[in-house]
Amino acid sequence: MADTQIAEDQSSAETSTSKIVTLRIAKSNPEKDSVTKFESFQVSYERWTTVLDAILDVKKHLDHSVAVRYSCRQATCGSCGMKINGRPRLACFTKISELDSDVVTVEPMSNYPIVRDLVVDLEKMFDTHKEMKPFMVREDTEITPNSRELLQTPEQVEEYIQFANCIKCGLCNSACPTMATDSSFLGPQALAQAYRYVADSRDKGKNERLKIIDDSHGIWRCHFAGSCSQVCPKGVDPAMGIQMLRGYLLGFRK
Amino acid sequence: MKRNENKEGIKGMANPGRYGIERVSYWLMRITGLGLLAYFIGHIYETSSILSGKAAWDSMLELTQTTQGHIFLTLVIGMCVFHTANGIRLMFAHGGIGIGKPTRPDYPYLPHSMNMKNKLCIYASIGIAALAMMYGLSVLFGE
Amino acid sequence: MRESIIMKIHYGTALGAVVLVAVHILYRITMMSFGDSLEYENVVANYKFIPYAIMLELILVLLSVHGFNGLRVILLELKQGKSYEKAVNYGCLASMAILIAYGSRTILMTSMGMT
After folding, report:
1. pLDDT digits over C9-63, tens only?
2. What are chain B's partners, defined as 3 or more CB pairs within 8 angstroms?
């Protein structure tokens, strides 16, 4: 049996602790039709097996056609975002054992167009990210002659460094209740990145960015439900960034 | 090629189960806001009957002075108190107050903005709304 | 109008309304029993007391602005599109104006004794 084979592959140790989980994978191909089918596979797992490991096992041994995007396997590239048991997570950062369930259902992230199976199109997120001018806005640079590096105190770095951890995985946009219905909303990813640069003492583009986000589908469509922060795998806390950013618009911050 | 956006839709927006009390408060804020607007419109229509004299006013009042009317009014009290208390919390939060300070995140990456202070304020808003409803019931049915 | 200005009005109307609605409710339950305060004569007397009538008018404006802007926000988030958004913006503005006009008519006529 293929599933038994997988279990043997994974547990070479004599005292195997492997268990079996049912992995339900949503399969769809919008280029053909709009039907989504769930296919179930029995997969063996250890305490340390991630959902991505399980999906790749299925892909290797049981169904080669499963479409999944991944790269680093260590929550750094942000490629393997998907809905795992109804909640957006990184497949490489989610252990099956921590889900505490005999059935693990994996679906493509909501609020993004599906390319195929578990792969979604993140293009719109990258576009809104670019809209936020994710770079230093200032006239001088560190590299012109007679200039020196732009110094910052540790406290000034603390102001934004948390938000610089964003890996653009898109989980926050998938969990956001506003994104669930509002296609024009900038989204927590872009807004948190706007804060990352506005809060950077070296940056001079605050007013430009505040103008961009002060739109009918901009920052005011965030209602601080906090779902974005709850799913962020890097501790970016986009909800905090958005409220801090709104503080500038409301005059609480200078 | 323009693809289907795969939006979660109203069901996903309204689903309060997956993301903790903050998402429940978001949902309650919306529902109570809509409920209060509906009540407000009804209240303005109801009070306009005063222009048609005592008989019209009394007959309009009679409609609301029933058990169902009192239960409805109790719900309105609850909605109003929750919407107010949670709204004040949100106003502070929207200004960046009471949501913690940015720091270098550490595993397991618990978000500072979803702190206990905010959670307690949400529970307190629900609690105060419940108390206000009980007080409302005692005033409305205690006559 | 910039969205930040609209939302500042939204927060301002909320704060104003909280204070005034509290006074409005306290007026109903502290002056006499709740039931008695709703008697026709007592309500008319309330309206004829000008500071109270002004307060009612303020509550009417504050809550209409806050309520219909809240509705606008919800509707804008539900669906998008140029004509839909325009219809929502103007529809909410018109509804707000109609409600204020209708409520003001009651307050004005009753306080002037035209009942």
Report:
1. 999 999 999 999 999 999 888 888 888 889 999 999 999 999 999 999 999 999 9
2. A, C
Query: Is B112's Cβ below 8 Å from some Cβ in A?
Result: yes
Question: The whole model's pTM is what?
Answer: 0.91
- Pick from A249, C14, C70: which is nearest to B86 by CA? C14
- Minimal-distance CA residue of chain C relative to A182: C77
Concatenated DSSP letters of chain B: -PPP----HHHHHH--SSS-HHHHHHHHHHHHHHHHHHHHHHHHHHHGGGGG-HHHHHHHHHHHSSHHHHHHHHHHHHHHHHHHHHHHHHHHHHTT-SS-------TT---GGG-HHHHHHHHHHHHHHHHHHHHHHHHHH--
Q: Is B137 exposed, middle or buried (0-12, 13-18, 19+ CB in 10 A)?
A: middle
Confidence of residue A253 (pLDDT cuts 50, 70, 90): confident
- What is the pLDDT confidence band of residue C5, given thresholds at 50, 70 and 90? very high
**Any residues with CB less than 8 A from the CB of A154 and at least 6 apart, and which?**
none
* Residue B138 CB partners (closer than 8 Å, separation 6+): none
**CA of C12: which chain B residue's CA is closest?**
B91
Return the bridge partners of A82, or none.
A89
